[in-house]
Amino acid sequence: MNDRVTCTHCNAVLDLVGEEDFRTGGHTGMAGALFAGWNQLDIEILALQMYRCPQCGHVEFFLPGGAT
Ligand SMILES: [Zn+2]
Question: What are the sequence ranges of the domains in the chain?
Fold first, then answer.
């Protein structure tokens, strides 16, 4: 992937903030409480690289080693 990622809003070069972990899948609310036993199986941790625009504050996420 290109190191110089530019902002889709103002075209400034984005700063790499770092890797953030996101939890995906699973259930929330009542259903989550009721099925707390098995819904854990659906949860995955997804690490995304976060870039922030120093100019307008826009934030973009990329999969590490992902899109070219
Ligand atoms: Zn921007």
Answer: 15-62
